[in-house]
C-alpha cells in the first residue's frame, strides 16, 4: 500500500487534464487542487514514517506516467488557446484563459518540479533527458546541469543561489534563484567542455539543448495559437517558474554553513506533511537527499530529529506576506535552529547574518543558551 500514495501526483495532473478537456469553467479545476491539498497537508498529522516499497518499478511508474499527462495537458492548453485566438464558437473567454494559466502553471511547478528533480539525479541518460523535457515548461531545461555541481556543494553558504539569506523576501529570491540556475547551467556547461578540450560551439554544449527545447515549445504554440497564444503560454511558464522558486525558497531559508565544512543533519529544512511528502516525491524529506543524492525518493528516511518546518503549503502562503513569514515562522524557527543545531562557528555566522538583516542578536556567544523544546512559531 505504501507505493500507492505516490500516485497522488498522477491524480493531480489528471485532474487538471480533465479540466481542460471539459473546457468552460472546468479549466479552473487544476488550480482548485491547491487549496484542497493545502488544507489536507495542514490539518493531517505530520508523517514521520518510512513507507516501504516492495516493488520499486511501481513507485517509479508515476514519474514516467507524468510524461504523457504533461504532454496531454499542454496539447489541450494549446488547443484551447487556438480556439480563443481564432474566435471559434464556444471558445474559452478571458477569465477562463486566466484559469488555464493558473492551472497549467500550477501543474508545471507541482508536482512537475519534484518529479523532474528526482529524475535529474538518476545515473542514466534517459531519466535525465526526461527531466529536461519536464523542466522546459518552467523555462529551465538545464536545471540539472548546475544544480548537482553547485547547490549540492555550496548549500547554506552565501555563494549558493538556492539558499535565501535571513531577511530576504520570496520576491527577491525568485529572481536570485532563477538567474543563478541559468548562470550555473551555462558556466558548468562551459567548464565541462573545456575539461574535454571542446569549444563552446561543440554540439555537446548543454546550452544548445536548453535553447532547442524552449524554441521547440514556443514554435509549436505559435504555429497553432499565434502570437497571442504564445504570450499567454510564456506567462504560464513564468508563473510556473515563480512557483518553482517560491517553493525552493522554503528548503534552506536562513540556514548557514561554514564553506567547506561537512553537510550535516541541520543543513536543510524538512517538511514532513502527510500530503506534501508523496505529492513532492519526498523532495521535502530534504536533508536525507543531500546526504546521498543517488538514493531513490522512496528510500529516503524521514528525519524527525532534523530541522523541521510546518506544512510547505502553509509556509509558501505565509512567505507571500513577508512580515507574517518573518514574525510567525522564520524568526522563531531560526532562533531554535541557532540554539539547538548550529555549531559554534555557525553561531558566529548566524549572528553576523542577523546583524546584516537587522534582526535581534538572540544568542549570547560564549554563553550557554537554553533552547525552547519547540519553536514558538506556527505549528
Structural key phrases:
disordered C terminus; 379 residues; mainly alpha; single chain; 0% strand; globular
Structural class: mainly alpha
The total number of structural domains is 1
Oligomer: single chain
Strand percentage:
under 5%
What is the count of helical runs?
A: 14
Q: What's the average pLDDT?
A: 92
What is the distance, rounded to the nearest whole angstrom, between the alpha carbons of the first and last residues?
29 Å
Total number of beta strands: 0
Query: Gyration radius, to the nearest Å?
Result: 21 Å
Unreliable residue runs: 367-377
Largest sheet: none
Helix content range of the residues, please? 55-70%
Order of helices and strands: HHHHHHHHHHHHHH
The 3D shape can be described as globular
Would you mind describing this structure in some detail?
- The structure is a single chain.
- With 379 residues, this protein is mainly alpha-helical.
- It has one domain (2-357).
- It is built from 14 helices and no strands.
- The protein has helices at residues 8-22, 29-43, 56-86, 94-109, 112-120, 125-136, 143-154, 170-195, 206-248, 276-279, 286-291, 312-319, 322-340, 344-357.
- Helix 1 runs parallel beside helix 3 (56-86) and helix 1 (8-22) packs antiparallel against helix 4.
- It starts with 7 loop residues before the first helix and ends in a 22-residue tail after the last helix.
- The model is unreliable at 367-377 (pLDDT under 50).
Amino acid at each position: 500500500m505504501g507505493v500507492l500514495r505516490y500516485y497522488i501526483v498522477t491524480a493531480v495532473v489528471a485532474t487538471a487534464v480533465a479540466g481542460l478537456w471539459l473546457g468552460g469553467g472546468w479549466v479552473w479545476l487544476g488550480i482548485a487542487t491547491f487549496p484542497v491539498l493545502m488544507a489536507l497537508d495542514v490539518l493531517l498529522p505530520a508523517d514521520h514514517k518510512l513507507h516501504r516499497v516492495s516493488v520499486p518499478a511501481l513507485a517509479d511508474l508515476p514519474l514516467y506516467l507524468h510524461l504523457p499527462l504533461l504532454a496531454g495537458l499542454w496539447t489541450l492548453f494549446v488547443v484551447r488557446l487556438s480556439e480563443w485566438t481564432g474566435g471559434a464558437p464556444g471558445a474559452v473567454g478571458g477569465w477562463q484563459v486566466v484559469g488555464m494559466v493558473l492551472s497549467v502553471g500550477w501543474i508545471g511547478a507541482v508536482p512537475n518540479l519534484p518529479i523532474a528533480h528526482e529524475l535529474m539525479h538518476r545515473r542514466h541518460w534517459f531519466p535525465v533527458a526526461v527531466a529536461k523535457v519536464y523542466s522546459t515548461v518552467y523555462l529551465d531545461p538545464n536545471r540539472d546541469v548546475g544544480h548537482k555541481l553547485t547547490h549540492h556543494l555550496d548549500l547554506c553558504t552565501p555563494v549558493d543561489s538556492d539558499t535565501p539569506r535571513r531577511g530576504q523576501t520570496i520576491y527577491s529570491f525568485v529572481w536570485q534563484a532563477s538567474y543563478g540556475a541559468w548562470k550555473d547551467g551555462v558556466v558548468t556547461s562551459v567548464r565541462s567542455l573545456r575539461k574535454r578540450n571542446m569549444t563552446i560551439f561543440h554540439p555537446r554544449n548543454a546550452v544548445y539543448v536548453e535553447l532547442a527545447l524552449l524554441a521547440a515549445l514556443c514554435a509549436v504554440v505559435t504555429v497553432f495559437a499565434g502570437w497571442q497564444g504564445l504570450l499567454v503560454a510564456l506567462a504560464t511558464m513564468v508563473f510556473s517558474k515563480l512557483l518553482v522558486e517560491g517553493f525552493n525558497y522554503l528548503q534552506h531559508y536562513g540556514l548557514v554553513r561554514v564553506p567547506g565544512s561537512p553537510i550535516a543533519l541541520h543543513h536543510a529544512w524538512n517538511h514532513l506533511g502527510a500530503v506534501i511528502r508523496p505529492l513532492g516525491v519526498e523532495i521535502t524529506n530534504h536533508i536525507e537527499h543531500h546526504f546521498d543524492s543517488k538514493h531513490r525518493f522512496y528510500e529516503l528516511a524521514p528525519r524527525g530529529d532534523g530541522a523541521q518546518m510546518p506544512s510547505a503549503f502553509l509556509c509558501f502562503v505565509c512567505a507571500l506576506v513577508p512580515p507574517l513569514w518573518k514574525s510567525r515562522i522564520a524568526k522563531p524557527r531560526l532562533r531554535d535552529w541557532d540554539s539547538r543545531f548550529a555549531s559554534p562557528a555557525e553561531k558566529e555566522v548566524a549572528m553576523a547574518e542577523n546583524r546584516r538583516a537587522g534582526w535581534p542578536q538572540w544568542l549570547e556567544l560564549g554563553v550557554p543558551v537554553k533552547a525552547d523544546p519547540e519553536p514558538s512559531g506556527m505549528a
